Each structure stands twice: as structure tokens, then as C-alpha cells.
Amino acid sequence: MDDLDVVGVGLGPFNLGLAALLEPVTDVRAAFFEAAPEFAWHPGLMLPGATLQVPFLADLVTMADPTSRHSFLNYLHERGRLYRFYFYERFHVPRREYDAYARRVAGSLPACRFGSRVESVTPTDGGWTVAVRTADGSVEHHRTRHVVFGVGSRPWVPRPARQDLGAEIFHSADYLTYREKAVTADAVTVVGSGQSAGEIVADLLETGLHTGMSLDWFTRSRGFMPMEYSKLGLEHFTPEYTAHFHGLAPHVRDEVRSGQDLLYKGLSAGTGERIYDLLYEATIDHDDPPVTYAGGCELRAVEPSPQPGRRWRLSWHHRDEGRTFSRDTDVVVLATGHVAAEPPIDGALLARDHAGRPIIDAGYRLALADGAPSTLFVQNAELHTHGVGAPDLGLGAHRNSVIVNALAGRCVYPEPSRTVFQRFGTAALADTADEPEPLEDPA
């Protein structure tokens, strides 16, 4: 059993960024474990032409340390692609290139160990014991002072479809695995209205419009809304707004976040335009194609179709009219989002809020149920405590700066105090402020 200062559980972009920022911090002994055999970022959605929805500066390290050898620009330089990128003149890079960049970084960091699944994290005197099953089936035990959970998310599937998952009904996370089944089907239904849904619909239109494919696109949301991408809106994805949001009462945070979906969900303007243009061009010399899309429709049931030549009958509830209707299809793609995955630790060890969610302090520590000082950190599971920036790649380096400084016990990476023009909270708005009125938690 070896002694470490920190163990990272999972190696998505956020923990990979932490490993990269920790590399020059030689007095912090770190190891990061990932069950997958190599780094892979949303492989089921690596569609041709898909780009990041954030600028390339939102790489693993730049917003904390632009001089790091693990920056995206240095990756391009080492690959001999810097001039080509210069002439490319794009702020949003291909998703495939971001994945290739991250794989190269992962391969250069000895602390990153793939093919190693963390099975449990249990408390020991003064720290934690981490059990790791390696590729050969053996189990290693590592003793560590700190643990950083970066276990990511898992696909969320509507209850009516859970028992029928397979090659004909699948989550968008597996789209490329089953794409051939979808693009060759006579009738396809896409559920959801976010970016993944839009990219899949565009792909199906490009491949299926000329074949006469019948395409349904339904969402529970009230419409197919574009994601907020104005400069003033983007100021919510900053350390300042994160600190302001965390300082609000828990029930106020929930209320605020309930109105912010389009800050981090929805379609990119480019994807929406691409879909509309494909439909428009398809009608230049032809009638409307067999494409139906509508908002406010909630999936209620999935059953075998009685219609000859069709596989499934989907029952829908129209939220505005309160009426139900059904449509038949062959393939169903569920672009219904993700939920945070549970970390491999006894949930009873963690303190919970009024809604049963983990309590996470401003420094990204998971609060412990016994009130003891916590040495557990979390990545991208703090949407309810830190706000809409939690899953955003652009804030990953900042969060990792906070974590690195806590692990090292000193300021390794300065944390910016002023990053935007907008002001959040009364402390920044007035020379003097009244005492806040007592807030009653309706829960």
C-alpha cells in the first residue's frame, strides 16, 4: 500500500486538467485512475463537423496557466499545426481535435493510469484507502490524504423507455454505435431539444431526406430554443458569479437556477440554422418532407407497434393542451441529457441538503456527515451549489486552481478576483448595504 497526497477518481477533462496542473507541483504526490482503457470524450457523439461550444482557450490549463506545456496552443505547436490553426481562424475547434489534444496530454502524464477502476473509497486514520481493480483483475490499495471525484455523468433515460434499450431504442451517448441502424431506418424519432439532439437531427436530415425517411423530433421543453451566447450572458460563467451563487441560500439557488436553463442548455445558433436550412432547401422542388417536430410533448409510453412495418408506438402527452397522441416509429434516439454519477463511496458519509444532495463548500469540498474537516473534493457535481458554470469547460481550470492550492497548502495558481464588468450581489453595488432580510426556506 503506497501513500499519496491525492487520488483522482475518473479521468474526464476536469480531472485530466487537474493532473496537468499538478505535474509541476512536485511536493504533491498524485495518482489518477480511470476504468476506460484510454481517454475518450463523448465518443458516441463525435460527429463530423461538431465543434466545442466554448472557445479553444477553455482547454485543460490555459485559464489557470497559459504558460503550461499542456495548453492547446502548445499541442498545436508540437504537432506542427500552429500556422494551420492560425489560418483556420476559428475560435471553436472541432470536437475531434479537442479529444485528440486531451488524449495526447493524458499519454504524457505518468500520474494518469487507465484501465484501473476505483471500486471503493473508505475512511482510514487521517485519510482514505482507495481500492483499485487493474486490467489484470488484481486489486491495489492506495492510502491517500485527499480524494478528488471526477466521475462525470451517466445518461438519463425516461422511465417509459428503460426496459426496451438496445439497438432500436438508445441514448444519444451511443449514437455513433447505432448510427447505421438509425440512418437506414424508415422512421426515426429523436427525443430532446439540446445540442446533442440538434446535431443528431441535422445528421439524420443530411442522410435521410433524400431517402424519404420519416423523422419525428419531440421535446418536453416548450420549444427548440437557442442557448444564450451573448457576451453579457457569458459573464455568468466566471469565478465571480460562481462565488455569488454559492453564497445564496440553498432554496434561493434552486429558484435562480430554475430560470437559467438556456445559459447552459439548448441549441447553438449554428445548429438551429443548419436544421432550418436543410428543411428549406429540401422544399425548393418538392413538397414538405416527412419531418415533424414539436415542443411541449412528454413521452409517456413505449409499446410494440400494431402498425405493419413499424417497430414501436410512442405515446405522448401534450403539456399545453393536456391531450395525448401516439406515433409509430422504428428507431428512437433519446437525447435526454445526463445526471451526475454516484461516486464510489458510502453515501452515508456525506452531509446532505434539504433535497438529499451532497453539500459542497465554496472550495469544492464534499461536506462530511460527522462534521469533520473534509479532504474530499468533487468535479462537475456541484451544479446545485455553484451554479451553471459547474459543467462548463471554461471554468474547469479555475476550479482546479482552487483544488491545487488547497492540496499544496499555498497559492500555486493565483485565483482572479475581477474577471468581468458585471457586478453580482449588493456588496459590489453600493457604498453601504442594509442587513439582509431573514429568508424563510419554504422546504
Structure, explained:
With 443 residues, the chain is of the alpha/beta class. The chain folds into 2 domains: 2-152 and 341-408, FAD/NAD(P)-binding domain (3-Layer(bba) Sandwich), CATH 3.50.50; 165-227 and 265-334, 3-Layer(bba) Sandwich (FAD/NAD(P)-binding domain). Helices cover 27% and strands 21% of the residues. It contains 13 helices and 17 strands. The protein has helices at 13-22, 72-79, 82-88, 95-108, 175-183, 195-208, 231-234, 239-246, 250-258, 261-264, 269-282, 383-386, 396-408, and strands at residues 2-9, 30-34, 112-114, 117-124, 127-133, 139-149, 153-155, 169-171, 187-191, 214-218, 291-294, 297-304, 312-318, 323-329, 331-334, 338-340, 376-378. The strands form 4 sheets. Strands 1, 2, 3, 4, 5, 6 and 17 form a 7-stranded mixed beta sheet that branches. A 5-stranded parallel beta sheet has the order 8-15-9-10-11, with helices on one face. Strands 12-13-14 form a 3-stranded antiparallel beta sheet, with no helix packed on it. The longest helix is centred in the first third of the chain and has 14 residues, at 95-108.
